[in-house]
């Protein structure tokens, strides 16, 4: 139950409790009165008959000193007042008795047994022959009835107080169990979390505090996830700095050694000097490429970096993107299959997309043996136009040409183990575990940069590989739905 509902219900009970008590008391007294009414009336009537037999004596209503017959009737339960025919008091067992003025009041309620809360009252005239001698008024106490009502009143109030204290105690227990104790625990958990301490999450209820706890736990999970991401990024940056420092140190040492040899050793032949200069240029180019990749990677990682996009016609742009790689493949004796068939408009960053193509083709050439095959394609429909595409690719990858086009780079070779596929996008990771095998053509950042560029275009990258067959990298880019609007983009 919601705390709000419980509190409102408790407040309602406390509000109606006095009304219920009053009604219960009234009903109980009324029932008691009905039960006692006949019995009490009969007993009172019988007692009153005895009193009337004494007071119905005309001689009592003359003025004289003592009236012993009447005095014998007086007790704690009975009081008598005698009036003469004019309404003056001639005898009273009560300390003060007022005379009755006026004939109307004097003759009112005669012969009527009037039931009051504490007494029965009876008034009757007395005649001396045909002449009015006087009146008598008798009051009979209802002590038994009053005592019974009093007992029931106190019992009802006792029940009221007991019920009130029970509700009060229940509210205290509820507030302590449902509010105070849980709020204190939540405060302790928040304090522990703020101080970086570990704690076990408590079970949450389906009420307001439970919702507050759940929101706190959700926030905690988000912060923990963000911390893990930050820690992972920090470790990756530290690893990257150490790795790049090492990778830059090696070619820099080579450049310095060859430069010193050119400067100091005068006996070098022209061929040796040319070879030394060639090595210096290659190492310098490698260092330039690494620094350029590092700058691009850092720029793409920045949350403030916004990539600029231009609208291009798909056929023209992707024809240009897949071309001009034949010389590089031919130089290594690799057969290249090229296919471009793209329709529609796209929003791209041309410079970054060219970097994607260069990274993927450079990586494919690097891992393809001489006389091997590489395929590069850009298509927006009908994957069957790529006869060279591996069968396991067409079987495992669902192509959706309704809203996307695909940029594909495939190379034959030994392939990549399935356990290493997801790690390929980590910066500086290489499937070839020997870092010494990295040559001047790879920096280890290419695939990570490619993934970030494609994702900033609203697409994604998937790597499929089969050991002993080869590897295929598929980049998916969204088509433009309307003017300036892509199908999806983060």
Q: Describe it for me?
A:
The chain is α+β, with helices and mostly antiparallel strands. The chain has 3 domains: 145 residues, Beta-Lactamase, CATH 3.30.450; 90 residues, Helix Hairpins (Orthogonal Bundle), CATH 1.10.287; 178 residues, Histidine kinase-like ATPase, C-terminal domain (Heat Shock Protein 90, 2-Layer Sandwich), CATH 3.30.565. It is 52% helix and 18% strand. It contains 12 helices and 14 strands. The chain has a 5-stranded antiparallel β-sheet with strand order 2-1-5-4-3, covered by helices on one side. A hairpin with a 4-residue loop joins β1 and β2. α1 packs antiparallel against α4, α4 packs parallel to α5 and α6 packs parallel to α12. The protein is rod-shaped. The C terminus is likely disordered.
What's the topology here?
Blueprint: H1 3-55, H2 68-73, E1 78-84, E2 89-92, H3 103-106, E3 113-115, E4 119-128, E5 131-141, H4 143-194, H5 208-264, H6 270-301, E6 310-313, H7 314-321, H8 326-332, E7 335-341, E8 345-348, H9 350-366, E9 373-379, H10 391-396, E10 404-412, H11 418-421, H12 446-456, E11 460-466, E12 470-478, E13 480-482, E14 485-486
Parallel strand pairs: 7-9
Antiparallel strand pairs: 1-2, 1-5, 3-4, 4-5, 6-8, 9-10, 10-12, 11-12, 13-14
Helix pairs in contact: 1-4, 4-5, 5-6, 6-12, 9-12
Q: What is the overall shape?
A: rod-shaped
The CATH class designation of the largest domain is Alpha Beta
Give the overall average pLDDT: 82
CATH 4th-level superfamily of the largest domain: Histidine kinase-like ATPase, C-terminal domain
Q: Runs with pLDDT <50, length 5+?
A: 433-440, 483-488
| Order of adjacent strands in the largest pleated sheet | 2-1-5-4-3
- Percentage of residues in DSSP E strands: 15-25%
In the CATH hierarchy, the third-tier topology of the largest domain is known as Heat Shock Protein 90
The CATH architecture of the largest domain can be given as 2-Layer Sandwich
Helix fraction, binned, reads: 40-55%
- State the domain count: 3
Distance separating the two termini: 41 Å
């Amino acid at each position: 139950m919601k705390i709000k509902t419980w509190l409102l219900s408790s407040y309602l009970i406390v509000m109606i409790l006095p009304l219920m008590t009053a009604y219960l008391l009234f009903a109980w007294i009324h029932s008691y009165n009905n039960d006692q009414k006949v019995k009490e009336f009969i007993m009172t009537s019988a007692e009153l008959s005895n009193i009337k037999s004494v007071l119905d004596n005309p001689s009592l209503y003359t003025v004289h000193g003592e009236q012993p017959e009447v005095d014998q009737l007086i007790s704690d339960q009975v009081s008598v007042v005698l009036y003469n025919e004019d309404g003056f008091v001639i005898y009273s067992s009560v300390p003060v008795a007022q005379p009755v003025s006026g004939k109307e009041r004097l003759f009112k309620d005669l012969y009527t047994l009037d039931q009051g809360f504490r007494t029965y009252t009876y008034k009757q005239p007395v005649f001396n022959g045909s002449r009015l001698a006087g009146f008598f008024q008798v009051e009979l106490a209802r002590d038994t009835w009053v005592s019974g009502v009093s007992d029931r009143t106190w019992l009802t109030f006792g029940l009221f107080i007991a019920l009130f204290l029970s509700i009060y105690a229940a509210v205290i227990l509820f507030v302590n169990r449902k509010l105070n104790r849980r709020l204190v625990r939540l405060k302790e958990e928040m304090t522990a979390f703020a101080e970086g301490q570990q704690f076990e999450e408590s079970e949450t209820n389906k009420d307001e505090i439970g919702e507050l706890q759940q929101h706190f736990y959700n926030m905690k999970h988000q912060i923990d996830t963000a911390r893990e991401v930050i820690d992972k990024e920090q470790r990756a940056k530290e690893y990257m700095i150490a790795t790049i420092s090492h990778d830059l140190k090696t070619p820099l040492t080579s450049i310095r050694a060859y430069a010193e040899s050119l400067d100091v050793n005068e006996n070098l032949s022209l061929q040796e000097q040319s070879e030394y200069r060639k090595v210096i240029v290659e190492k310098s180019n490698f260092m330039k490429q690494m620094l350029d990749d590092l700058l691009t990677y850092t720029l793409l990682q920045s949350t403030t970096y916004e990539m600029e996009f231009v609208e291009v016609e798909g056929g023209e742009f992707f024809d240009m993107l897949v071309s001009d790689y034949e010389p590089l493949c031919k130089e290594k004796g690799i057969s290249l299959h090229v296919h471009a068939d793209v329709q529609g408009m796209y929003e791209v960053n041309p410079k970054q997309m060219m970097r994607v193509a260069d990274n993927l083709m450079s990586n494919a050439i690097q891992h393809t043996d001489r006389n091997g095959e590489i395929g590069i394609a850009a298509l927006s429909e009908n994957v069957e136009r790529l006869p060279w595409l591996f069968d396991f690719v067409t079987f495992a990858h669902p192509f959706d040409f309704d809203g996307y086009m695909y940029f594909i780079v495939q190379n034959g070779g030994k392939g990549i183990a399935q356990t290493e596929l997801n790690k390929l996008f980590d910066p500086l990771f290489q499937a070839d575990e020997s870092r010494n095998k990295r040559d001047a053509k790879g920096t280890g950042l290419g695939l990570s940069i490619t993934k970030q560029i494609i994702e900033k275009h609203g697409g994604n990258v998937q790597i499929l590989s089969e050991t002993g067959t080869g590897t295929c990298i598929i980049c998916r880019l969204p088509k433009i739905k309307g003017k300036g609007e892509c199908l999806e983009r983060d």
